[in-house]
Amino acid sequence: MELGFLKPLFSRPGPWASVYVETTRATEDAAKIQELRHRAIAGQLVDEGADAYTIRAVMEHLAAEPVSGTPPGRALFAAGAEVVLDVPLVVPPTAGEATWSLLPHVAPLARLRGDDPVCLVAYVDGTGADLELRDGYRREAVGRVNGREWQDRGHRGVPDDRNEWHYRNKVENGRNETADAIVAELLRQWPQSGAGLLVLTGDARERRAVYNRLPDGVRAVTLEAEGGSRSPGAPAAGLDREITRACDRFTQERLRRTLERFRVGRGKPGEHRESSVDTGPGDAAEGVPAVVDAARKHQMATLLFTPEASDGGRQVWIGPGADDIAVQRGEARAMGVPRPEQARADDAVLRAAAAADCELLLVPAGMGGPAGGLGAVLRWSG
Fold first, then answer.
1. Which residues have CB under 8 Å from 379's CB, separation 6+?
2. Whether residues 46 and 65 fall in one domain
3. Is 249 contained in some domain?
4. What is the torsional sign of CA 43, 49, 54, 58?
5. Which of 164, 203, 214, 326 could staple 332 via S-S, CB 3.0–4.6 A?
């Protein structure tokens, strides 16, 4: 999971109200159930000591929730009488949770938001492409490419005369120009989209022409899928299933490779290498002291997190800056933090990871993740 979307939370001071609530409305008494959920959230915030203005902002935001009940859950983060971030959840919270703390309590997002990559989808045909960004339940049209429109008469043999040859040559040139234009727009949008997977769907011949023109790095994370069309109202169930399966494969393979690097870099379980010699990108940190040290130095490339991590709730000392994080209060003061305050280790490390553009991977229980539930693959060692 990319963490850039969390940055608005760390550019302003707390304390923060962090709310996780189910929003499904599939039963006849859904309105009453929702009212009880919201009342429970308000009660928890009062008990936690949240100010009345922030509580009101949260409750007004929840009251405006759409009646569709999709997605099945939401996470809200509010401070200073304002809801700063509203995150749709793929997995509904089993129970509503509301906290009031110095840092926003973002750690549950690792489990509830889902770990599927953002997908950039291109619906391709002979006249161009429609581009769509998919992120969990969100689908957003992000552009259109209009190419050369030439009608192919369907002839496949030797041209009958010179005029026919010229016509067919124009058709082929038009197709090539359209494919080039689609690729140019995909490459323009790819870096800024945050996508981890590119999906080409639509007409088989045209999407293959686009695929063949992509650079190797992008082609390695590109899937050709059946079932998509630019035609309005075209059924999309088949395409949705293909994309879901592709995302699952992508996520599992990425996790497998990252865990392999983590285990190689970790060495013996519980060991954190402190060598001053750069031994490559496989070096790893494990446990709160090592991960905090790596977070402060911007060494983390990938943060590994296990649900219900025992180390996640440990207290660390922080200051106002994302890099102001230490295991001991005296250490934080030595770093120049005049009044260190305590916060959960998982939330503090995630703040530092988001600031450093580090990605987060959720490690399911039983997969041999980091001891204590917190670990990292490092950009460099030492």
1. 281, 298, 299, 300, 301
2. yes
3. no
4. negative
5. 326
SS3 350: helix
Q: Which amino acid is at 49?
A: G
Sheet of strand 300-305: strand arrangement: 284-286, 374-378, 300-305, 359-362
Rounded Cα–Cα distance for residues 8 and 87 (Å):
12
Cα distance between residue 320 and residue 8, in whole Å:
14
Query: What is the rounded distance in angstroms from the CA atom of residue 45 to the CA atom of residue 61?
Result: 15
Residues paired with 374 in a beta bridge: 305
**What are the tens digits of pLDDT across the range 199-212?**
999 999 999 999 99
Domain that holds residue 268: 256-378
**What letter would DSSP give residue 1?**
-
Tell me which H or E stretch contains 301: strand 300-305
> Cα 355 to the chain's mean position, in Å?
15
Spatial contact of 171 and 151, defined as CB atoms under 8 Å apart = yes
CB atoms within 10 A of CB 251: 19
How many Å apart are CA 91 and CA 138, to the nearest integer? 14
Eight-state DSSP code of residue 150: -
| pLDDT one-digit tens code per residue, 118-173 | 899 999 998 899 999 988 667 888 999 987 655 444 444 545 565 665 556 555 66
For residues 119 and 199, the answer to whether their CB atoms sit within 8 Å is yes
Four-point Cα dihedral 254, 139, 218, 181, nearest 10: 180
Whole-prediction pTM: 0.78
The total number of structural domains that make up the chain: 3
Residue 225 gets the label, from left (phi > 0), alpha (psi -120 to 50) or beta, of beta
Token pair for residue 305?
């997190």
CA distances, 31 to each of 5, 27, 69 (Å): 31, 9, 11
Q: Of 76, 91, 112, which marks where a domain is finished? A: 112
Supply the CATH number for residue 72's domain: 3.30.960
Chain segment 238-284, per-residue pLDDT in tens: 888 888 888 888 888 889 999 999 998 886 544 444 433 333 444 89
